[in-house]
Amino acid sequence: MFLYSHRISLPLVMPLLLGSLLIARPAYSIPTTLEEGQQWIGEICADFGIEFCAYVPKEDEADAKKPLRLTATERQVLTRLVEQQENLERRGRDLDRRETQLQALQEDVQRQIVQLERIQQDIEQSIETKKAQDIEQLEKAVSFYTRMDPAAAALSIANLDQKTAVNILMRMKDKQASAVLESMTAERSSELIDAIARKR
Questions:
Q1: Quick one: pLDDT at residue 77?
Q2: Is 55 in the same domain as 103?
Q3: DSSP state, 148?
Q4: Would 137 be classed as within a structural domain?
Q5: What predicted TM-score, i.e. pTM, was given to this entire model?
Q6: Is the dihedral of CA 165, 168, 170, 174 positive or negative?
Q7: Looking at the structure, do residues 121 and 80 belong to the same domain, yes or no?
Q8: Looking at the structure, do residues 51 and 100 belong to the same domain, yes or no?
Q9: How far is residue 197's CA from residue 9's CA, in Å, rounded to a whole number?
Q10: What CA–CA distances, in Å, run from 95 to 29, 89, 91, 109, 149?
């Protein structure tokens, strides 16, 4: 008989187990209904840490379906909270829109800066090109006046604008420039010598 004791079914052993629990734990009252019995067994399982049969109290359906009643002050507070939430969301959308506009403006400004830098480079290159051309033409003029007779060169240079005349005389050798200045009128020669002195 003891060899087959493990084959005894749970329904046969359960009353013995419950009876021994009642004796060991007299604090439990004997249930009178099926629901009380289920609750009673569930509480015992919960006490002994048996999870699969532990009693979990059901939420009171009346409390669950009971409508939430708010006081006038609570309604005002809730309304203000909802309004503040809407205001925050609206401000957030405004900030997002402004950020997008600012980013587009920054990109436009950056494009204009790049264009201005390109234009400035073009202008500087044009200025350098013009300076090189002017120097080349000035050198040709100096070479031309150097080969001329000083009197003829003086007559031609005296009729040029003062800046050009000074630049030509400053590029000539001192002896040649002196000969040209001596061939000019005293007034024109004096003007050019003063301009050369200021430039040096």
A1: 86
A2: no
A3: S
A4: no
A5: 0.42
A6: negative
A7: yes
A8: no
A9: 130
A10: 67, 10, 6, 20, 81
Give dist(CA 71, CA 106) in Å, integer: 52
Question: Looking at residue 36, what is its pLDDT?
Answer: 73
| Residues contacting 160, CB < 8 A, separation 6+ | 168
Contact 53, 45 (CB under 8 A): yes
Residue 163 lies in a domain: yes
Give the integer Cα–Cα distance in Å for 103 and 21: 76
Between CA 184 and CA 192 the distance in angstroms is 10
> What pLDDT shows up at residue 106?
94
CB 196 within 8 A of CB 169: yes
Residues 6+ apart with CB under 8 A from 162: 191, 192, 195
User: Do 97 and 122 belong together in one domain?
Assistant: yes
In total, how many domains does the chain have? 3
**Does 83 map to a domain?**
yes
Residues 168, 142 contacting (CB under 8 angstroms): yes
Say whether both 176 and 123 belong to one domain. Answer: no
pLDDT mean for each 10 residues of the chain (200 residues): 45 54 52 69 70 60 58 85 90 93 94 94 92 89 90 90 91 91 90 87
Q: With residue 127 as reference, give the H or E element that holds it.
A: helix 72-147
Residue 187 domain-assigned (yes or no): yes
pLDDT of 58 reads 60
Structural domain range at position 100: 67-129
